[in-house]
Amino acid sequence: MAIEPSPSPIRVSCFECPLRHMKRFRPFTEAELEFVSSFKRGELIADPGTTVLVEGARSAHLYTVLSGWGFRYKILEDGRRQILNYIVPGDMIGLQGAVMAEMQHSVEALTPMTLCVFERSRLFSLFELHPGLGFDLTWLAAREECILDEHLLSIGRRSALERSSYLLAFLFDRGVNAGILGDNHRHIPATQMHFADTLGLSIVHTNKTLKKLADRGLIRWRERGCDIIDPVGLQEIASWTPGDPRVRPFI
């Protein structure tokens, strides 16, 4: 269901934002926090399967994920879907539409999501009044480019087993850094169809590949998603190591 959602009233003040208390996110200055608080116009609660942004739309809003998982994707005319990346708390979506006039991809909620809503029309004032926040947006865009580079390398050159291991290790690392995964919670809420559409494999090939990883004791597959048992083992198969943890910005 494609929507141009209307934000609900603010329930979580920027001053009380839970992301601000996480070590992985850079702190705001007092002036920046005041600006972001005035920039926020409401919140959006998205159920799983809700299309938050649709390709070709001219959205009036930008969003920062406060909680939950989502994903970005494109669809060919015959309905084939390619998932481009997954979205976790702290990520901003809709920036592409603000710069390119319209969205070049769609965004769907994978789990229940809460998103902070910002008015696209006020984006220029962020760069004008707070260049530090403007640099943060540039950093977020550059990081997204780096992620897509790694995804393209994986799809183009890794074997099915290697690319599956990479995707699982990557998602686990993203979840840990966003504070939604850890030692006591290792569940990635994506179906085998989501994995197939990300990996560029058929659902049958994806099923067989994930079963090999489960047989090795690296993951435990469930009805809607899987539990990561051995993230280091997955990294070794993929020949991929996460970058050093670093403080990252968010808006």
UniProtKB/TrEMBL annotation:
Stored InterPro entries: cNMP-bd_dom (IPR000595), cNMP-bd_dom_sf (IPR018490), HTH_CRP (IPR012318), RmlC-like_jellyroll (IPR014710), WH-like_DNA-bd_sf (IPR036388), WH_DNA-bd_sf (IPR036390)
Q: Which GO terms describe its biological process?
A: regulation of DNA-templated transcription
Q: What stretch or stretches form a coiled coil here?
A: none
What Gene3D superfamilies would the database entry show? Jelly Rolls (2.60.120.10), Winged helix-like DNA-binding domain superfamily/Winged helix DNA-binding domain (1.10.10.10)
Q: What keywords sit in the KW lines? A: DNA-binding, Transcription, Transcription regulation
Q: What PROSITE patterns does UniProt report for this protein, alphabetically?
A: HTH_CRP_2
Query: One Pfam family for this entry, by name?
Result: HTH_Crp_2
What sequence ranges are listed for the domain HTH crp-type? 158-232
Please list the GO terms describing molecular function. DNA binding
Does this UniProt record's set of keywords contain DNA-binding?
yes
Q: Which domain of life is it from?
A: Bacteria
Extract the CDD domains matched here: CAP_ED (cd00038)
Q: What is this protein called?
A: CRP-like cAMP-binding protein
- Species: Rhizobium rosettiformans
